[in-house]
Amino acid sequence: MSRVVTLGWWAVWLVLAAGTSSCRGVFIDPSSDVMLLAPPRDGFESVADAMQPSCGTLDCHGQPDRNLRLYGGRGLRLDSAKSSKDGETTVDEYDMNYWSVVALEPEILSTVVAQQGRDPERWILIRKGRGTTRHKGGTLMHPNDDLDQCIVEWLKGNILVDPCFAASRISVDSPTP
Amino acid sequence: MAPRERSAAPASRRLLPGLAGGLLLATLAVVAGCGNFNPLSDPVEDAQRAALGPEDPNVPEGPLHRAGQPCAVCHKEDGEAPAFAFAGTVYRDPVEALAVPDATVVLTDAAGHTFMTTTNCVGNFYVRPSEFQPTPPVWTSVQKIDFPWTMESPIHREASCAACHYDPAGPATAGHIFVTDDQTTFASILSRPCTAADGTAR
């Protein structure tokens, strides 16, 4: 009860503005009275899998010293006894990836989510991925391609399984990211 | 008429040029006197170079040296050695680090361009930027026997295979590169002595 009372009015406004969609995630920084919105954790596995070959390889964000740190069955492993040769991405790894992603510019992400994903390039992950902000890894997605759709729709609270799956399967036979 | 007295400059104004000069001299002395100190160096790169250790005195500096090490620590643009677009060392199997000579390394980029090269007698291969300037990401495979061993993930920006492929395999590394895990094929994969064709100079 006391936590509810301490929430800032603007945070309450954000929640109201976000509507009542049950699939939109909410998290609270326990050290402050700020409430921020985040895209849903439910279904994030598809988004994380989509990001794995384009973002989460061992030579990019699959490195322990990256701010955006991504784990995955084919990249960095959370379990110190495992390597990228050992099986699929685990639930714990998906959890860690989720928090790593939503911790990027959380206030901006919250605003984008509150506005149903409008102008997603306000959020750094979209700008970096689209290459509109300097990104050492270059341009990895273009508006409306599979990876872009997968992430942008997730910001709206939707999980588009087919584009996400297609983005997770880029290979030498379909190499254009 | 009494001579005009020179007005005394504030003590700080008199001290500053002296301090600046002293600092400059001290910096020059340190730079000149300590060969290993470079105030403009990158500490991360310095640490990477230091981790390589010294050259093996029995191996000439060149295509045969530092097998299994991350080549692009030195072999990079504006580096101290000729730049490589990709370079690495190929071994027989996932357990033993037995170098595989004459394995084919195939690199295919996002634009569909393919480049092929082969390993030398110590398993090393390298690709110069003048030979292949890929559009990332790049998919790769190595082949010594009937079928290629293909890397599941693409390469986005790392030129050194050993940056990700080092031993022992663990959470941040897939272990060294190998051509097969099928023990029945091990006997057909032979090493060979180095020849002049393998190169001894950079």
Overview of this structure, please?
The complex is a heterodimer of chains A (177) and B (202). Chain A is 41% helix and 5% strand. By secondary structure, chain A is mainly alpha-helical. Chain A has one domain (42-168). Chain A is globular. Chain B has 202 residues and is α+β, with helices and mostly antiparallel strands. Chain B has one domain. Chain B has a four-stranded antiparallel beta sheet, with no helix packed on it. The model of chain B is unreliable at 1-5 and 28-35 (pLDDT under 50). The chains are: A mainly alpha (177), B alpha+beta (202). Chains A and B meet through helix 3 of A and loops of B.
What's the gist of this structure?
Chain A is built from eight helices and two strands. Chain A is mostly helical and 177 residues long.
Basic shape of chain B: globular
Number of strands of chain A: 2
Count of domain modules of chain A: 1
Sheet/helix structural class of chain A = mainly alpha
**Rounded to an integer, what's the Rg of chain B over CA atoms?**
26 Å
Number of helices of chain B: 2
- Amount of beta strand of chain A: under 5%
Mean pLDDT of chain A: 84
Structural class of chain B: alpha+beta
Number of strands of chain B: 7
Uncertain ranges of chain B:
1-5, 28-35
* Gyration radius of chain A, rounded: 17 Å
Mean pLDDT of chain B: 85
- Tally of DSSP helical segments of chain A: 8
In quaternary terms, these chains amount to: heterodimer
- Strands ordered across the widest β-sheet of chain B: 3-2-5-6
Read across the widest sheet of chain A, the strand sequence of neighbours is: 1-2
Task: Tell me which protein chains meet in the greatest interface and how many residues each side has.
Answer: A-B, 30 and 26 residues
Shape estimate of chain A: globular
> Termini of chain B, distance in Å?
80 Å
